[in-house]
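Anyone opening a protein record will find just a pair of labelled lines. A complete record is shown below as an example:
=====
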Amino acid sequence: MRPCQLLLLITLVLAHAPLPAADFRAGVARVEITPPVPFWLSGYAARTNPAASVRSPLFAKALALEDAAGARAVIVTTDLIGLPAEISEAAAERLQRRYRLPRAAMVFNSSHTHAGPAIWPNLRVMFDFPPAEQERVRRYAERLTDQLVRVAGAALDRLAPATLAFGRGQAGFAINRRQPTPQGVRLGVNPAGPVDHTVPVLRVTGADGALRAVLFGYACHNTTLGGDFYQVDGDYAGAAQRQLEQAHPGATALFLMLCGGDQNPNPRGRVEHVEQYGRELADAVTQTLKGTLAPVRPPIRCAHQLVALEFAPHTRETFETELRDANVFRQRRARLMLEAYDRGRPVRHLAYPVQAVALGGDFTLLALGGEVVVDYGLRVAREFPRPGLVVAGYCNDVACYIPSRRVLHEGGYEAVDSMIYYGQPGPFAEDVEDRVFSAVREVLGRVEVRP
């Protein structure tokens, strides 16, 4: 047989070789959630007026999965500052009724872009809206709830055979922002602080071998654009998704915000940085897709629980004093806390969501609520060295920062000052990290696949 004939035979054999059996069925959907401008942006208290234009549209996207036994899970990602429980739980309840999905099977993640719309009642102390503007913000939140239900439902309705694989890349633009000074920790740049530069990548291919979706994450605030930016934008996460979808036509890119509560892009402040970091992140994902990824197999197992995180002790007098503070944000927080005292229900704890979605023993998404600092992701990796374990913050309820024991002891913005804008009574009690990890062990134990 001549060499050219042999080459032709090999090509024909490969072309007709069966593709790997699909272990799952997967569905993907998206819906645009760009607010109508002008609209107030969230994330920076220093802003003095709403955004008048849109630099890039915002989306909610959903990846639905089903195994051969009929177990299902849906991961919803959003280009938003953060979803409060009022929205994510309302959407989850409607999806439970319509699709008979257990609550543990639905994850709602937010990219934490600081150029996205105000999401009521997230960060409520940051705003003092006049009645008309308050009504517009409330209407957007109601419409957003409808859109989350719609996009998750569309993904479930589009389930088709799929094969999954997992790998990790690297991107280096995140830096720890908790800068030690003689006056205490302040927001700045701390090159010696802990970081997590890994880029987890979950690849979803169809029965024809074509890329259908890629779910990827990074542990860094979407604060490339500052408080002087007045356009709607998805920041670096939005740019990375756009660039991946342009490079892979027909595929949907979904971004997961990981444990980036104390991480910032560096340097930052310009639109050029947004595109630069989006490209760096997209390139890391593309290189990972080109490499050898580990197969991900069934079954789907999910677990979800709420754990009570206690706040440090406070009294009514604490907030009566704060009400006389010259800081308008402290005054607003004090009013909220005094109203709770008036109702006989002072805020003593936070109902905190901890969730795990496992695909066999090959991929596990540990979904934590709030703005989780990087210490949590690093500790989980140390204590639970599973090859496909991914720890995401900003899931299901972004009610405030979740400091580690170290961050709580050091103080600073993530531990103390941020609680003002979130309308929480103050710092957490000393055992906050212990309580979170007790719940982490519980949910991971419930989804573990044992031989």
